[in-house]
Write a structure and sequence with these properties.
Blueprint (H helix, E strand, L loop, with lengths): L2 H4 L8 H30 L36 H7 L3 E12 L29 E15 L3 E4 L1 H4 L2 E7 L5 E10 L4 E5 L9 E2 L10 E6 L7 E12 L9 E4 L11 E3 L4 E9 L10 E5 H14 L4 E3 L2 E5 L2 H7 L7 E6 L4 H5 L6 E5 L2 E2 L5 H7 L6 E8 L2 E8 L1 E3 L3 E2 L15 E5 L2 H7 L5 E6 L1 H6 L6 E5 L2 E2 L3 H10 L3 E8 L2 E8 L2
Parallel strand pairs: 7-12
Antiparallel strand pairs: 1-2, 1-4, 2-3, 3-6, 4-5, 5-6, 8-9, 8-11, 9-10, 10-13, 11-12, 12-13, 14-21, 15-16, 16-17, 17-18, 17-19, 19-20, 22-23, 23-24, 24-25, 25-26, 25-27, 27-28
Length: 509
Amino acid sequence: MNVELAHGPTRRPKPWLIGGVAAVLGVVLLAGGWTFAKERSSAATAPGAAGQIHLAQVTPAPTEPATPAQPLVRGTLPDFTTLVDRFGPAVVNISVSGAIKTAGGPQIPDFPGLGPDDPFRQFFRGLPRQPREVPMRGEGSGFIVDPNGIVLTNAHVVNDAKEVTVKLTDRREYTARVLGKDPASDIAVLKIDAHNLPTVRLGRTADIKVGQWVVAIGSPFGFENTVTAGIVSAKGRTLPGGGYVPFLQTDVAVNPGNSGGPLFDLNGEVIGINSQIYSNSGGYEGVSFAIPIDVAMNVSLQLQAHGHVTRGKLGVLIQEVNQSLADTFGLERPRGALVAKVEDGSPASAAGIKPGDVILAVDGQQIESSSELPARVAALEPGSQAKLQVWRDRQARDMTVRIGTLAPAQLADNSDQPDSAGGRLGLGVRPLTPEEQRESDIHKGLVVEAVSGAAAEAGIQEGDVILSANGKEVASVDDLRKIVNKSGKHVALLVQRGDTQIFVPVAAG
């Protein structure tokens, strides 16, 4: 340490002191200069003075007062205390426990004296691996949307969970039932047996503006009711595996455990559900994504009413329009979704859409990027008509299409949902596509796309086709739901696997 710098006049001033001194000296010099000039002028113009010089008085030209620049950012930093006090109690901590299946190791015969390091074990490499279950525990966040115990969270928070516990800010805990979950949008709906609970207030996605302040409340790393803030960085982001969700991008600090928690605007309204982060470290790096609340509530209502989510279908394979393609097709700039392929028998085919068309708008809403089209179409009601603006032969034209039904796995795979298609059985099913019907020569039935619980224990596998339940044909998810709800302790499923058909009794939960 330099003692001289800490004592006496030799101490070097801090940068802000240097600037302050310079400013003061400037004022002093300007003031002294003005006084000196005044005295010189008086002496020079005094009557009878030798060498008198007559100076013409110059009146400066009037100038327009400068218009002050309007501030682009107004107000002071926001205060979030009232928002947190009012709506923080409606944010909950969610803890889950269960088991996940792992590949395990080779199923090696139990020979006496064969230790784990015995070289003889290498001869058993390549044997089928014995799957095993590993205990799983996790935490996330959620929020109450109905005072009678309806909670929204992320689907990935409750995946593979056998027990879900919801903890309120007043330390009350409830065992929750999973009413439904939709992996495509990453939304899950929970129910706890409680009443008169605090709830959040819901906003509208259309009102969100890039740059506005937003607040997240959740349980990062298990720290319950943690508040973080930031701004909306972008809207309509499409992420890998999330083609049906136009994500909100923010710079709010979101970390593991924040998943499923609410994103508030300054009005105290929930505008999104925090879902994902982009990170090299696994922690917050300034880029987080939230599911718009409009999307989340649409999914939530469908899950509660039907146990699955129905989405609109167009039936096209699309790609982005770059500058070269825009020049080729005569577009003034790159925009829209270029149709690369049209599915046979699809709504797009029936409407006359062709490869090479560029879809510019759906029901008057512009399509700037091809990634916007799947979410826009998925949000349309199957059976409804939509107006498309299509660019073809260097001009725009209007076309009408009747929206079809997208047929992903209709996951009613929660063992607690009594009125879902496969909830009591542990099945996620969907109808066969026309192509699958032609290839298999099976015209009715449901393809198993997810299996757990009682169905897995009974031997049902992914890819099986359920032909009937309790002797009645099943052509739709609703058919299976009705039969399961009216059944007793078991449901007899007729299952097609390859060329074989077999009845499998499954416990009905």
